[in-house]
Amino acid sequence: MSEQFDLSSFEKSMVIREMTHDDIDSILRMQDECFPGMDPWERAHLESHLNIFPEGQFVAELDGKIIGSCSSLIINFDEYDDRHTWDDVTDEGYITNHNPDGYNLYGIEVMVHPDYRRMRVGQRLYEARKDLARALNLKSIVIGGRIPNYYKHEKEMTPREYVDAVSRHKIYDPVLSFQLMNDFTLMRVNPDYLPDDMASRKYATLMEWNNIDYKPQSKRHFKTSYPVRICVVQYQMRQISSFGDLAGQVEYFVDVASDAYSDFVVFPEIFTTQLMSFLDEPVPSIAVRKMTGFTEQYIELFTDLAVRYNVNIIGGSHFVMEEDEEIYNIAYLFRRDGSIEKQYKIHITPNERKWWGISAGDAVRVFDTDCGKIAIQICYDIEFPELARIATDMGANIIFTPFNTEDRQGYLRVRYCAQARAVENQVYTVISGTVGNLPQTENMDIQYAQSAIFAPSDFEFARDGIVGETNANVEMVMIGDVDLEILRRQRQDGTVKQLKDRRHDVYRVEYKKS
To answer: Which domains occur in the chain, in start order?
Structure first.
């Protein structure tokens, strides 16, 4: 029997999936149809959502066309005032206050194109959120819902009376009625929630869906601290005769860090240039190319030490020749589980260009570790505040800066900028430098350093914002603890709140790499 019709020609494809950067233009066009007269998303908002919490952003797609979307973040709802506004809970739409260790998924936007309503698109998006809350073992979903038909009844009803009437099915409200049908319960009515929502007269219903599958995790209850121990190595440059000499000194410091139960040990920028001291090559540009031949041994050494001593290692930085025959200044993260990441130096100093012909990287990276998200910004890079802001917006709590400076002026540029980045971004910063000298090595003959760990400047942190520092120009280590839980609370309730108080309506930092 032959088929009369080709059924595939009648099929439609409706999918709910995670949002991508390629969807942003479609979403921006759709919101003009969904919310005329209200302040729209900007591209920077959606890019921030995808950079910070991509798994919490969904789109509905019908035959390849975006017809709906929703956005969310994770918070500890108890830390917010009951009368919070949308701007309070979303950092004005940028969700930089997203807390991956929080208890509650907070929904901040759902939109469905008007031409595709009554197709249960909104319900599908809500189900995707519920599935996410179950998968992440979150306690509940909280939303601040509009009441867009309230303006029709404001003369005869208070907001509370209107919400009560909708709850009793005496009045239909397209948003509140839908939320009640999706098992959300009313908590309260918040005034001045969305200043541009004139149809709701700026009111919103605070509602919650409880995850009945939620399993309390003891490690997340009553958390008072989240300590991370950092061992900073102030490394002395010295004449050596083989790679083995360098490896022996490196292992000594890793052993010291491990004995102190450190989570991270940090080495300085290009401390491996002491390999040039036995290469017998007077021309710096040739010597640096010879030195790149030790890259494989360098990576094998640090990978082995990280696993064997059970410590995450910021392996300083090393000059690496890549397939394009260019040489880059690269800092490697060697995790204690054996995995490896790398960060290219983005800003190359005039000295590096003149003597060694070093090429620049072009991407800011933030790395997941067993102690939260970190970034690495090599020496000169910490002197450009945009990079630290981008890394912080991507979730970094600690910025490590391996550095190499030959005089006090250069050192102070690194130090003062690292301290400024800690204050501006409410993060911890760590600087690790070289001391000593290499008399026979051109362009690496003298060093100046005083390594340190810096904190934001507020009551909860160490006096003067200095967790600890080494003595100047002496080979030694400094071990200090930073507390990520205090950092998180201070971002929310500190004396000043640089991250929350940024004027996105006046300025913004735009990262051009996806």
So the answer is: 12-210 (3.40.630.30), 228-493 (3.60.110.10)
Residue 354: active-site member: no
pLDDT of 201-242, one tens digit each? 989 899 999 999 999 875 444 456 789 999 999 999 999 999
Tokens of 425: 């971004």
Is residue 73 helix, strand or coil?
strand
Question: pLDDT tens, 101-159?
Answer: 899 999 999 999 988 887 889 899 999 999 999 999 999 999 988 898 999 999 999 99
| Sole residue written with tokens 């890259």 | 295
Q: What angle do CA 60, 61, 63 make, to 5 degrees?
A: 155
The residue assigned the tokens 């942003």 is 24
Residues 6+ apart with CB under 8 A from 294: 243, 272, 275
Known catalytic residue at 12: no
Active-site position among 61, 109, 269, 475: 269
Ramachandran category for residue 47: left, alpha or beta (phi over 0 → left; psi -120 to 50 → alpha): alpha
pLDDT digits (tens, 9 = 90+) for 184-203: 999 989 888 888 888 899 89
pTM attached to this predicted model: 0.72
φ, ψ dihedrals at 32, nearest 5°: -65, -30
CA distance 237 to 438: 6
Outline where 168-283 has alpha helix (H).
Answer: 176-181, 243-259
Q: Which of 139, 202, 342, 345 is catalytic?
A: 345
SS (H, E, C) 311-356: CEEECCCEEEECCCCCEEEEEEEECCCCCEEEEECCCCCHHHHHHH
Distance CA 166, CA 67 (A): 27
Residue-wise pLDDT for 294-310, tens only, equals 999 999 999 999 999 99
345 is catalytic: yes
Contact call for residues 45 and 93 (beta carbons, < 8 A): yes
Amino acid at 8: S
Q: Which residues of 173-195 are buried (b: 16+ CB within 10 A; e: fewer)?
A: bebbbbbbebebebeebbeebbe
Tens-place pLDDT, residues 343-357: 999 999 999 999 999
Residues 333 and 343: their CA atoms lie apart, in Å, by 8
Query: What are the Cα distances from residue 9, in Å, to 2, 5, 12, 264?
Result: 16, 8, 8, 58
Write the CB contacts of 244 (distance below 8 Å, at least 6 apart in sequence). none
- Cβ–Cβ contacts within 10 Å for residue 321, how many? 16
The confidence score (pLDDT) of residue 9 equals: 52
Out of 379, 417, 475, 500, which one is annotated catalytic? 379
